[in-house]
Amino acid sequence: MAPALIPERIETERLALRRNAPADLDAFVAIWRDPAVWRALMGGGEPDLEFAAERHARQVEHWQREGFGLYLVEIAGEVAGWCGPWHPDFIPSLSSEIEIGWTLRHRFWGFGFATEAAAIAAGIAFERLAPRRTISLIAKSNRRSREVAKRLSMSIAGEAEIPDSGITLDVWELLGPPRFMPCEIYV
Questions:
Q1: What's the fold here for domain 9-174?
Q2: For residue range 87-124, what is the model confidence (pLDDT) as tens digits?
Q3: SS (H, E, C) the chain
Q4: pLDDT at res. 133
Q5: Poorest-confidence range of 46-50, 98-102, 126-130?
């Protein structure tokens, strides 16, 4: 198991980011079970709970192997989503990049939580992992995530297709830490 390269827990006045662990399977699957999340990330259809469980296992393993990964986002003590840096292994050509991913359950949308969490995750990634850039992979139809990327000062750098899916995502990039931090951070 790799030592943690980023803090395993970060708090602000409004939310906490904490390391995703094996015991968090039910909370992680509950995020995917939200039909609005499934539509935003997968384009439609019914949530696939087996897929969600497999993604959880991959995220836990990523933390163990790499020393960083997606955090679970807690708001008022409830798991509201995930956010953090990881290697997007579902697109082999980008698997060495560091992606800042974020997703919140629908009832937490519209309050700035995703922007706050993503700004923290991007700042930590640049500070502790020192990449040349970070990326975010966003569906063209995912207006809300595109707006978060813009608030982080990200720009579109290209496209990438998820193999064997027919799904093309925009590759957004950030070439340095976010220019603003919307909150005070407590590590």
A1: Aminopeptidase (3.40.630)
A2: 999 999 999 999 999 999 999 999 999 999 999 999 99
A3: CCCCCCCCEEECCCCEEEECCHHHHHHHHHHHHCHHHHHHHHCCCCCCHHHHHHHHHHHHHHHHHHCCCCEEEEECCEEEEEEEEECCCCCHHHCCCCEEEEEECHHHCCCCHHHHHHHHHHHHHHHHHCCCCEEEEEECCCHHHHHHHHHCCCEEEEEEEECCCCEEEEEEEECCCCCCCCCCCEC
A4: 98
A5: 46-50
How far is Cα 105 from Cα 25, in angstroms, rounded to an integer?
A: 15
pTM (two decimals) = 0.93
